[in-house]
Amino acid sequence: MNKEIATGNWVKNVIVRKEIDKYLIDGKDFINEADISYRLAKNVDPSPQQIRDILQKSLDIKTLTPDETALLLNVTSVEMWEEIFETALEVKKKVYDNRIVFFAPLYCSNLCVNNCAYCGFREANALETRRILSMDEIKRETSSVLREGHKRLILVFGEHQHSDVDYMASAVKAVYSVEEIAAQSGRPTSIRRVNINAAPMEIAKLKILKESGIGTYQVFQETYHHQTYHEVHPLNTLKGDYQWRLYALHRAMDAGLDDVAIGALFGLYDWRFEVMGLLYHTLDLERQFGVGPHTLSFPRMTPASGSTLSSNSPWHVSDADFKKLVAVLRLSVPTAGMIVTAREKPEIKKEVLQLGCTQTDASTRIGIGAYSDQKTESDIDKKQFTIGDPRDLDEVIQEVAKMGFIASFCTAGYRCGRTGETIMGMLSHCDEGKFCKLNAVLTFREYLSDYASDVTRQIGESLIMKEIGEIESMNYFKNKPHLLQKFRSEYSEILGGKRDLYL
Ligand code: SAM
Ligand code: SF4
Q1: For range 104-119, the mean pLDDT
Q2: What is the phi/psi pair of residue 390, to 5°?
C-alpha cells in the first residue's frame, strides 16, 4: 500500500459520527449563534448597580449566565472596567489563593494532515521541516526541561497517523520514566504530571490516554463561530468537522478523563463572541456531566510560518481588549483555572496574571526537539507560531515572586484523586485553594533549594516566610491542626532533603 492510501484510510476512520450525535440536542449543537448575538445586542448599557450585582455573584463563586456575561462584555465606562479588573483578581485569590502554577509545553511532532489557515504545522506549508520525536528524543527533551526545574509538562502533537494515540501513550510513559538529578541539591527529580494537547479522538482512544496516566486533556475549539470555523479549517480535512471538535471534551468525560481543558484562539473572530462560546461550552459540560472545564485558555494568534492570516487578521485582539476578555472569563467561570502562555509578551503576561490567571509556562521552546537542540526561538520556519516570552523559568518565577505570587509545581490534586467534580466542588467552596496554598509552599520550597538563582532564592524565601505566617494565622487551618502539623513536618523534611511530599 502506498503512503497516501494508508493515510487516507486512517483519516477515514478517525471521526465516529455516533460519538457526536449522542450529545446533540434535537440534532443541534450548543452554540446557537443567533442566541449569542441576541444576548450581546440586548445586554447593553449596564448600570453600575447591575455590574456590581454581577461582580458579587462571581465573588460568591457562581458561574455567570450568558446575559450577565454579555452585560460585562458591554461595559464602556473606564471606571467600571477598573472595578471589574480588581474583582477578577479578588475572585482568583478566593478560589486559588496567590499562587501561579508553572508548566512547560513539549512539542512532540509537527506531522499534520490538517490545513488550519493560522498554523505553521499545516500540511500545505512547504516551509516547515517535518519531524516526529523518537521515544529517546522525548526522554532527552524531558531531561532538559527537568534541569530547568519543571515538574509539569503538556505534550503537544499535530494530527497524524504516526502520532496517533499509541504514540501519545508511549510518549507519556517515556516522560514519566525520566529521572534527573537537581544540580544544586543532588536530589532526584521527575515529571509529576503530564497533560496532553491533541486533536479530538473517539472514546476508545481516549480511554487509552487515560490509562497512560495523563492529567488534563486539552482541545481548543479555535473559534466557536461556525462560518469562520469553516473558513479557516477546510471542509475536506479532519479538523473541518466543527462538531467532532466541539464534543471532544464531552467524549473525554465519557472516557473517564474528567480534567478537561477548553480554549479559543483569539484573533479569528469577534472576541466577545468567543468569550460567550467558552461560557456556552462550560455550561454544556456542566449540564451534561455536572462539572465544567478544569482550565480555560485564550491564546492570541501570533505570526506563523507561511500563514498570511496569522499576521493580518481583521479580528486581531488589542492588548486592551485582551485584558478585558481575561477579566470577564475569570468572573464568568470562577472555578476554572486560567492559562496565559508564552505567546504573550512579558509585559502583557504580567498584567493578566493580575487579572486572575492561575497558570503559565516558562522557558518555553515550541520547536520540535528544541529543548535539547538548544536552538533559539527566532527560527520561525521550525515552529507552529511565534512566542512573545522566551524567558527562562527562574526569571519568570522571580518576577511573579516580586508581585507577591508563589510559584507552584503542585500536582497533588490529581495524584490524590481530587479531579473532575471533586476538585471543582472544592474550588467552589474555596477549600481546594487552601490545600493548594500548602502544596504551593512545599513545591516552591523544593524549587528554591534545587534550582533557584541566588536572587530568586532570596526573594522567594522572604515570600515563603510571609506565606507561612499567613497559613499559621488562618482560622481554616487552626480548625484543622492535623493538617497544619503535617504541613510543618513536610516543610522541615523538604529542608532536610526529602522530595515530593504533599497533602
Ligand atoms: N493539532 C492539535 C490541534 O490542532 O488541536 C494540537 C495542537 S496545536 C499544535 C495547539 C494550539 O496552538 C492550537 O489548538 C491553536 O489554538 C494554537 N495555535 C495554532 N496556530 C497558532 C498561532 N499562529 N498563534 C497562536 N496559537 C496558535
Ligand atoms: Fe495541525 Fe493543530 Fe496546526 Fe491545525 S492547529 S495545522 S491541526 S497542528
Answers
A1: 97
A2: -90, 10
